[in-house]
Amino acid sequence: MHRILIFLLGLAAAPWAFGADGAALYSRHCAACHGDTGNGGIGVPLALPSFQASIDDDYLRRTIRHGRPGRVMPAFLALPTEDVEAIVARVRSWSKAPRMRYPDIPVTGDAKRGRKLYDAHCAGCHGAKGEGGHGTGITLSRPRALPVMAPALNNEGFLVSATDTLIKEILMRGRAGTPMESFLKQGLAERDIDDIVSYLRGLQKGTALPASTEAPVLVVESPYDLKTTVENVKRAVSSNNFLLIREQGLDFGLVPEGREDRSRHIVYFCNFQFLNEALGVDPRVGMFLPFRITVVEERGKVRLMAYNPRRLLPMFNNQELKDLADELTRRTLAILEESTL
Amino acid sequence: MRLRALIAAAFVALAPAAPAAPAAAQDLMIARSAQPFPEAMTALQAAIAARGYTISRVQRVDVGLENRGYKTDKYRVVFYGKPEEVARLAAAYPDLIPFLPLSVAIFAEEDETILVTTNPALYAGMFPQPELKPVFARWEQDLVAIMEGVRKAGHAWLGPEP
After folding, report:
1. pTM, entire model
2. What ipTM was predicted for this assembly?
3. For chain B, which residues make up each domain, given as ranges?
4. What are residue B60's DSSP bridge partners?
5. Which B-chain residues 5-34 have CB contacts (< 8 A) with chain A?
């Protein structure tokens, strides 16, 4: 009995046994994008000393909770508070410097003047409306143009997370090791910086992707039998500028060859230019590849089915995918329609 | 008596380490493996099989792209399912068909590897039939274990698999 107890307590003391083990939690929730040691991947390198010097714990806490709506970084709403604290401690463990605090005291300046200064000094990287650099910093399997993308400053998550004094500090000091330089060193006065902070505070917030209420599946009935419908789909695929990749039963590879259920037939197709563009914007979309239409025969009725890209869009939290999702939905509907004419 | 209370306390301390962590559900499950692509791919296929699924096919997205002159690192999509489950769900809930079989995207980032898949918990919002709830919950649990398994294959310090 005693031995069991000691064993159990021993288990509980092992670092991985605690819910709030910061290293493990960080690795699970953050490392995919920010790198295991905060070295970056997509998103900014969190271990960078100049980053650590220009933020405080509250900025991290709020960023974890609010994310960056529409800019890939998810909002971790459901994480227990102790897990958030453990992750903050993990991120802070990369810095040996004393932790700063940037209290929530308003910086007052002339926002109108700030706007002019912003247009002249910042818009080139952060966008005319503060919408951030294009590509969202997502590169992953892609060739990388810039080591770090300019973040969105009109982002609700950023504006909620950063106090005025924190933003001011970033502009005064810059972030050494990134393209973001100190604007004091670039010749702006402290008053100019106050004006820019006031302007940023009033920026019109970027649009987050709203949850979609559209149906998850696009379905049309076919007046033809299954075989004719499949042939129609293949024809419609190529007349809509897609390439037929393969066709197979839904249960291909799951049941022995030759035993597939013939009433559920998948037609896979692709347009490599479109695909390349989509993966360039966000390589995470790949799990829905290749595009497909499934032809299903049920009680004498033949139906064509495809997932609805617009319904799947919000899960990626990437506003730059919106046009591509609209385009893919439009093209899928065109194929469905043409196949059942 | 006191001993039993202590044992109970030890279990409480262990509880947060439970792998399912559905309370922390994100729409996407995304994991980084410190292993290079070939090792991570082997670990992924082993982890999927270990949860009782059959791998039906691997789509080599990178090969298609490269054949057409586009630059990309290794990029594959692994499809998997349980034969009877896929047949049963497709018959009873045809709207699920476009999402079957399940899939995980796996791709290289330099000498590391990234895995991405939809969190099946998300499907519960799309397909509200109560009978499907436990199915999605099980898929989610399995996927958490699969993703953790692959991650930990490259991170000895994270402790044993869940």
Report:
1. 0.87
2. 0.86
3. 2-14+26-153
4. B76
5. 6-7, 10-11, 13-17, 23-28, 30-32, 34
